[in-house]
Amino acid sequence: MSTILPLKVKDVNFIAGDKRLIKDMNFQVKAGARVMVLGANGAGKSLLLRICHGLLPASSGEVFWNGQAGFPKKVRKHQAMVFQRPVLLRRTALANIEYALKRQGIHRSERRDMAYAAMKKVGLGRLAEQPARVLSGGEQQRLAMARAWAIQPEVLFLDEPCASLDPSATHSIEETIEAFVEKKTTIIMTTHDLGQAKRLGSDVMFMHRGRVLEKANVKDFFTSPQNDLAQAFVKGELLWWKRKEPYPGGGMKMGR
Ligand SMILES: Nc1ncnc2c1ncn2[C@@H]1O[C@H](COP(=O)(O)OP(=O)(O)OP(=O)(O)O)[C@@H](O)[C@H]1O
Question: Which SMART domains does its entry note (predicted)?
Answer without folding.
Answer: AAA (SM00382)
